[in-house]
Amino acid sequence: MESITSLQNSKVKKWTALHKKKERDNTGLFLIEGEHLIQEALKENIVETIITDEQCPFDFENIVQVSPQIMRKISDNVSAVHLIAVCHKLEKQPDMVSRALLLDGVQDPGNLGTLIRTAVSFSFDVVYVSEDTCDLYNDKAIRSTQGALFHMPVIRANLVDVVKQLQKDGFTIVATSLEESETMSEIPKSEHMGFIFGNEGQGVSKVLQHEANHRLRIEMHGFESLNVAVAGGIVMYQYRGK
Amino acid sequence: MESITSLQNSKVKKWTALHKKKERDNTGLFLIEGEHLIQEALKENIVETIITDEQCPFDFENIVQVSPQIMRKISDNVSAVHLIAVCHKLEKQPDMVSRALLLDGVQDPGNLGTLIRTAVSFSFDVVYVSEDTCDLYNDKAIRSTQGALFHMPVIRANLVDVVKQLQKDGFTIVATSLEESETMSEIPKSEHMGFIFGNEGQGVSKVLQHEANHRLRIEMHGFESLNVAVAGGIVMYQYRGK
């Protein structure tokens, strides 16, 4: 087993740099922390290296033993972390798709991660994110998925193209909107559906609202404002897959 | 108008200390940032002082002009903030209650804030939080409410006592649970209902599950795990008030 004790070690520097999006994009690698996430990642065969300052609970060919000081340097977390894994980005492709989630410019990594976690729970098959949606491999986004990202194909694409292709394939596309919209009881469930949620401030862009088959509003009284991950949860529950 | 230029000024120190729960508890004061939140707080007459390093957009008797450097010291935010208000904690009492939200040991300030925001949107009348639920006046909790906390009575109490009192008053109490539970279609809507959501890791405590009239599970496939604010959104939407 390899052992590293110097903070100046080039691998330590390389791993620490993975907190930056640019470095993740260049290398195709990202970091995860904690036993639960690593267990999920091992099932998907995407783990490259496991780094620990304790006894490693996993039987894995590439474990690197480091000092607690190095662990603190690599970790993003304020509280002590004893297991970190370097992973290859996933390239999962969806099989049969019946339910698609489309995210148009979601900015908060916590919201992105939570939406993916919810999509897995309600049997969605694929998540498309617009070019300007925040990075999936951001530490907070990964933490918020609670491991769900390993079970879901997430594809970055131009959402106008995605909507047009899905419609050709027989999908009904529903965009959330506050104007000229229908409630959930007015939009029937069908076999193939896609749901678009938008940016925290601006909502779904006009062009996508226009392309969609339905514009959906969640009935509310009073404050008239929901967090996008909460709105996503309500709609995905209502139209959950099988 | 008062003007402060020294970082050592005693008021600056006092305001900065309000990021600590202990100081908020001792003084009954808390901080909010940004024009939108301050506007909402002014409507409730809880603003004590407005602090700014720019032209103040509000007509208010107690505005303090400070340097950008002082502003950065007082603010919790990484990006520049130009308006901060010191507020008195709210003591809102509920009027007629038809829908109550009970939070049992919610730990994440973002989840707490989001749950309160959602409760306002779905016409809930009161939120009870257990003694071990995180502080409502935490910066992140306040930001996540998006101002909704000014429209909702939030009462810290022993939830077993609250449940017993609500049941005496004719309320049906529903606790979320994974075991021995019913789905939403099996639990009818009624005029007076209370819903208990629990800690992010442990869920609702056994004693509260036992006291509740129903144990509710959200139907899911696959991953079987929802963020508590998302679960709260789904249930509050389904049983929303009028």
Supply database-style keywords.
alpha/beta; five-stranded mixed beta sheet; six-stranded parallel beta sheet; 242 residues; homodimer; 11 strands
Walk me through this protein's architecture.
- The structure is a homodimer of 242-residue chains.
- Chain A is α/β, with parallel strands linked by helices and 242 residues long.
- Chain A has helices at 10-17, 21-27, 35-43, 68-74, 109-121, 139-145, 159-168, 206-211, 228-238, and strands at 2-4, 29-33, 47-52, 63-66, 83-88, 99-104, 126-129, 154-156, 172-176, 193-198, 214-216.
- In chain A, the strands form two sheets. The first copy, chain A, has a six-stranded parallel beta sheet with strand order 8-7-6-10-9-11, sandwiched between helices. In chain A, strands 1-4-3-5-2 form a five-stranded mixed beta sheet.
- In chain A, helix 5 (109-121) links the parallel strand 6 (99-104) and strand 7 (126-129).
- The longest helix of chain A has 13 residues, at 109-121.
- Chain A is elongated and about 60 Å long.
Please give a quick description of this structure.
With 242 residues, chain A is α/β, with parallel strands linked by helices. Chain A contains 9 helices and 11 strands. The mean pLDDT of chain A is 93.
Task: Give the helix/strand layout.
2 copies of one chain form a homodimer.
Chain A: E1 2-4, H1 10-17, H2 21-27, E2 29-33, H3 35-43, E3 47-52, E4 63-66, H4 68-74, E5 83-88, E6 99-104, H5 109-121, E7 126-129, H6 139-145, E8 154-156, H7 159-168, E9 172-176, E10 193-198, H8 206-211, E11 214-216, H9 228-238
Parallel strand pairs in A: 1-4, 3-4, 6-7, 6-10, 7-8, 9-10, 9-11
Antiparallel strand pairs in A: 2-5, 3-5
Helix pairs in contact in A: 5-6, 5-9
